[in-house]
Amino acid sequence: MQQRCAKAIDLVHQRERAEILKGVAFLTNVCDELKEDSQAAALKADSFFYLAFGCYRLGLVPRAKRALETVLKTEPNSTRVKDLQTLLEDSGASRAKSGFVFVAIVAVGIAVTWRLLSRRGGSNNTTQTAPSASTQQ
């Protein structure tokens, strides 16, 4: 069990997304097996912590938070847990800000487009040319 956990922890530290996904899959299996094992508390905490870390690296913030909640039950004062918790909270805040900025940009774009189109439509209706001398004959 410890060897599988160590391999999975190594995988969540890799650069390639596919490797991180493998590590998260391994850790998910390990965590499922350890949920009921009360004698493997340290291995359980490490497994859930690195599952949360791997999920964070993949952008799976809600899943990372759920895994981290399990670790908080056994390690409420752990520096590493608090650091990851801060990263997860900051990640959620920055995503919310990004969403707001995107909506604001779209709204401004729509307003500018509407304004330009309404000016063009208004100028076409009011501009009339006088008949030329050659067409009046």
Care to describe what's here?
This protein has 137 residues and is an all-alpha fold. The chain is 82% helix and 0% strand. Helix 2 packs antiparallel against helix 3. The longest helix is centred in the last third of the chain and has 48 residues, at 79-126. It is elongated. The mean pLDDT is 81.
**What is the H-and-E element order?**
HHHHHH
Overall 3D shape: elongated
Average pLDDT value?
81
Radius of gyration: 29 Å
**Helix/strand structural class:** mainly alpha
Largest sheet: none
Number of helices: 6
Total DSSP E strands: 0
- N/C terminus separation: 101 Å
Oligomer: single chain
Helical residue percent band:
over 70%
Q: Report strand %.
A: under 5%
Would you identify the regions where 5 or more consecutive residues have pLDDT less than 50?
none
For the structure shown, list the relevant keywords.
mainly alpha; 82% helix
Quick summary:
The chain has 137 residues and is an all-alpha fold.
How are the SSEs ordered, and which strands pair?
Elements: H1 2-12, H2 17-34, H3 41-58, H4 61-74, H5 79-126, H6 133-136
Helix pairs in contact: 1-2, 1-3, 2-3, 3-4, 3-5, 4-5
